[in-house]
UniProtKB/TrEMBL annotation:
The keyword Lyase applies. Binds 1 potassium ion per subunit. Keywords: ATP-binding, Isomerase, Kinase, Lyase, Metal-binding, Multifunctional enzyme, NAD, NADP, Nucleotide-binding, Potassium, Transferase. It comes from the Bacteria. Pfam families: Carb_kinase, YjeF_N. This is Bifunctional NAD(P)H-hydrate repair enzyme. It catalyses: (6R)-NADPHX = (6S)-NADPHX; (6S)-NADHX + ADP = AMP + phosphate + NADH + H(+); (6S)-NADPHX + ADP = AMP + phosphate + NADPH + H(+); (6R)-NADHX = (6S)-NADHX. Residues 205-459 form the YjeF C-terminal domain.
Length: 460
């Protein structure tokens, strides 16, 4: 099941146009948007005094609707504007507001600030005086709400084009926009809520949903549940972390193919020494391997390169992470793989691609015919067929050594279980984020693995 759609500004305009073409009056859509936003702000504001900042476009029009509807419910509302409204719907919304309109420059603060200055039509950063005023009023408010988007964020990339205050609530109208999900814009909003205004959306790019998982069936056995092989390298600990994550993540059987004998790690994981090319090739010559992970702790020397070559030649479903991504050429990635790069690995592999993180991940996925998990505080999981899922809100405690190895192992485990690279990557990213949430504060990668089982249990 896909999550709610994420639309660029252009795609949003096209979706709105389709609604108008179907016979809905443009102003009626603005009333729907303002009504949905007013309801959410009403619930969050408890009747406190309110200042609505209205811009010159339709985002400002939404603001006038919100002000009118909340004033009708008895909320003490004032409106401050940046000059006149310039759109037909905005002019109509303003004409229905019967209160006074203050100049933004002179507006007095209020307990609740509603930002309806700019939405998807923002073309550049706010002028210094406008951004300064917005931030100063936000500083004095106890509750700050954004209509559709925080003013000053680039809708499609999530970049901050001018100073942006911190918001308590952002009400996304009709569909999510990339800025609700991508950093740094997503980090300016404590809670984002999607308001349905009756727009049909293409959901190829969507919010990552919690997965629906299944417990093993009565006919399950270790091979049917999925055999994962992990190619170990110079740093054995990374391979051990990934192997444990693959096992806990659902694989029926995990084999760790190490450079040298060590007896660390759970006994349930079968560790064998496969240091020479022949031993490794022999170990990988097993059609039952449902997912083959290479990269964590692999190293970057000639021996590492040789081990990676053997792994690629095994022609098993691949998960490529860490050092494998630094050794590979993008054109040499076997199609159908899953790649899990952080920003640095992504740039090393694919260069400086244009567009948002979503655009870049989709272009990379198309180029190598594989699923690309562009991981970070916001993670984009992109498939070569144009689907993408975006995750946000990952615990900042994940910024510690080994958590990437855990994610790679989880992807391999879910790939062995599902046989579907995009689904496996989506499930793994969600479980990784949920395990971190359950782990709480100050965990290390080993502790994160301990929280994967409860994360899975919550989705059965
Ligand atoms: N379509 C619909 O019917 C519906 C749309 N909806 C709502 O409309 C929003 C999109 O509305 P929008 O397209 O009018 O854009 P909006 O963000 O209000 O601003 C554009 C205006 O700002 C100006 N401007 C831009 N940047 C500037 C800057 N830095 N500093 C100063 N000025 C700047 C720009 O003029 P410019 O100077 O670029 O020529 C233009 O005048 C959307 O987010 C949602 O809230 C909902 O009601 C549902 C129905
Ligand atoms: K806004």
């Amino acid at each position: 099941m896909a999550g709610s759609a994420i639309l660029t500004a252009d795609a949003m305009r096209a979706a709105e146009q389709a609604v108008f073409d179907a016979g809905v009056e443009p102003y009626a859509l603005m009333e729907r948007a303002g009504t949905a936003a007013a309801e959410l702000i009403w619930r969050a504001s408890c009747g406190r005094d309110m200042l609505v900042l209205c811009g010159p476009g339709n985002n400002g029009g939404d603001g006038y609707v919100v002000a009118r509807l909340l004033a009708a419910r008895g909320v003490p509302v004032r409106v401050a504007a940046m000059g006149e409204s310039r759109t037909e719907s905005g002019i109509q919304a303003r004409s229905l507001w019967t209160g006074s309109v203050e100049a933004l420059a002179d507006a007095r603060p209020a307990s609740v600030l509603v930002d309806a200055l700019f939405g998807t039509g923002l073309a550049r950063g706010l002028d210094d005086d406008v951004a300064g005023r917005l931030c100063a009023l936000a500083e004095r408010a106890t509750h700050i709400h954004a209509i559709d988007l925080p003013s000053g964020v680039a809708t499609d990339s999530g970049a901050l084009l001018s100073p942006v205050p911190d918001y308590d609530l952002c009400i996304a109208l009709g569909a999510w926009k990339p800025a609700h999900w991508l950093q740094p814009a997503a980090g300016t909003v404590r809670q984002a809520v999607l308001a349905d205004i009756g727009i049909a959306c293409d959901d190829r790019v969507h919010a990552l949903m919690p997965p629906r998982l299944k417990a093993p069936g009565a006919d399950a056995h270790k091979y049917r549940r999925g055999l994962v092989a992990v190619v170990g390298g110079a740093m054995a600990g990374a391979g051990r972390l990934a192997s444990r994550a693959a096992a806990v993540g659902g694989a029926g059987y995990v084999r760790r193919l190490a450079m040298e004998a060590d007896h660390a790690g759970p006994d349930a994981i079968v560790a064998s020494v496969a240091a020479t090319p022949d031993r490794l090739a022999g170990a990988l010559d097993d059609r039952r391997i449902a997912a083959l992970l290479v990269g964590p702790g692999l190293g970057r020397d000639d021996a590492a390169r040789a081990r990676m070559g053997i792994a690629l030649a095994a022609r098993r479903p691949l998960v490529l992470d860490a050092d494998a991504l630094m050794l590979l050429d993008a054109d040499a990635v076997p199609p159908g793989s899953v790649l899990t790069p952080h920003d640095g690995e992504f740039a090393a592999l694919f260069g400086d691609l244009p567009g948002s993180k979503i655009d870049r991940a989709l272009a990379a996925a198309r180029r190598c015919g594989s699923v690309v998990v562009a991981k970070g505080a916001d993670s984009v999981i992109a498939a070569p067929d144009g689907r993408a899922a975006v995750a946000r809100g990952a615990s900042h405690w994940l910024s510690t050594a080994g958590t990437g190895d855990v994610l790679a192992g989880l992807v391999a485990g879910r790939l062995a279980v599902t046989g579907d690279p995009f689904r496996a990557a989506c499930e793994a990213v969600w479980l990784h984020g949920e395990a971190a949430r359950l782990a709480g504060a100050a965990f290390i990668a080993d502790g994160l693995i301990g929280c994967i089982a409860p994360a899975i249990a919550g989705r059965l």
